[in-house]
Amino acid sequence: MADKFRVALTRDILDTRGEPAFGRAALALLERAGNIDWEYLPRVVPEIDAGHAAQYDAIYVNIARVPAVAVARPDCRLRVVARHGVGYDSVDVAAMTRAGILVTNTPSSMPRPVATTALTFVLALAGKLFLKDKLTRSGRWHERMDHMGMGLTGRTLGVIGAGRIGQEILRMARTFDLKLLAADPVVNDIELAYIGARKVDLATLLNESDFVVVCCLLNERTRHLIGAKELAQMRPGAYFINVARGPIVDEPALIEALSERSIAGAALDVFEQEPVDPANPLLAMDNVIVTPHALCWTDECFHNMASTGLASIVAALSGRKPEFVVNPEVLGHARVKAWLKH
Questions:
Q1: Which of 79, 112, 245, 303 is labelled catalytic?
Q2: Nearest-CA neighbor of 49 among 9, 76, 14?
Q3: Which of 88, 106, 190, 193 has a CA that sits 20 to 30 A from residue 281's CA?
Q4: Do the beta carbons of residue 244 and residue 214 sit within 8 Å?
Q5: What is the chain's mean pLDDT, rounded?
Q6: Catalytic residue, candidates 143, 274, 323, 329
Q7: Using CA atoms, how far apart are residues 322 and 313, in angstroms rounded to an integer?
Q8: What is the pLDDT of residue 2?
Q9: Which pLDDT score, from 0 to 100, does residue 1 have?
């Protein structure tokens, strides 16, 4: 019998009990594959190295980075890097492509959970939920009249990035009778109009929106897309929400805008540096809601991510093209054509 493929899961996907955070059900995909032996990496690592790439045919990565140096040695065995999530800025995709390695992600599992996160922030900010929680707990009940919330009917929600997640946010937001805007250079305006949104440029979106939601990918074009100039274009009563990646925003500029109250507040699930520094001024602001890049993490979300991601590994190592390939150009690489049959 031929040797089995070796698959590793990064250990940062385990909870404090040593159990997979996505539950055990998705692991059945690996267990049922007769051509795979799998294991967790023996310890948590910040990034995949050349030793890992020489040892495994596929690696399922959560937080760990995958740099170019990991696949530079001639003994590189790695065929697949599967990301637990939709973002892949932690993987040097260009280097993987040069080395003939498939990179996959799990975009189908993320739109509803992340959209729910964005709207959770919208509702919490509009109703001043955290402030009113604090009033109640600190015996300041009679101050409630001084902190009126914002009704949503007729207000404007703008999404920066109108891919799968952005469009799901827009679809779900229609329930609240919000006016809907989207800024995305790629998405067709007819496609957006179909779900009730108007395509506008970024400046128009910032100027007209009561809630601005960042939900685009992080890349060299979007790094610091939102800086002091862009924040100055927002309304004084508007709220800024980021459910994408921290470096899309110039964080010092956001801190200044919030400190000066030139915008009403913010809700952030992501930061430029993660884990966030406890001394970060954002954590001390009473007009900011913060969560640890995890608000969309639910049992449903993680199970769907793991099922999609592990299925991509099983498909690829069985010679089939996975459903979601980040670098489709790699399919023409001689190394890939030698083992990916159909």
A1: 245
A2: 76
A3: 88
A4: yes
A5: 96
A6: 274
A7: 7
A8: 58
A9: 40
Reduced to 3 states (helix: H, G, I; strand: E, B; else coil), residue 68 is helix
Q: 3 pLDDT exceeds 90? A: no
User: Is residue 289 a contact partner of residue 130, using CB atoms and an 8 Å limit?
Assistant: yes
Give CA–CA dist 251/240, Å, rounded: 12
- The answer to whether 214 and 161 are in contact (CB under 8 A) is yes
Catalytic one of 83, 84, 112, 293: 293
Active site residue 256: no
SS3 208: helix
**pTM for the structure as a whole:** 0.86
**Among this protein's residues, is 83 annotated catalytic?**
no
User: Closest Cα to residue 86, out of 335, 326, 269?
Assistant: 326
DSSP string, 262-316: SSSEEEES--SSSSPPTT-GGGG-TTEEE--S-TT--HHHHHHHHHHHHHHHHHH
Please report, as a single letter, which amino acid is at residue 154.
Answer: G
DSSP type of residue 247:
G
With a pLDDT cut of 90, the percent of the chain lying above it is 97
**Which phi and psi angles does 183 have, rounded to 5°?**
-115, 115
Q: Is 39 a catalytic residue?
A: no
User: At residue 289, what is the residue type?
Assistant: I
pLDDT tens for residues 196-224? 999 999 999 999 999 999 999 999 999 99
Place of tokens 């001394």: 279
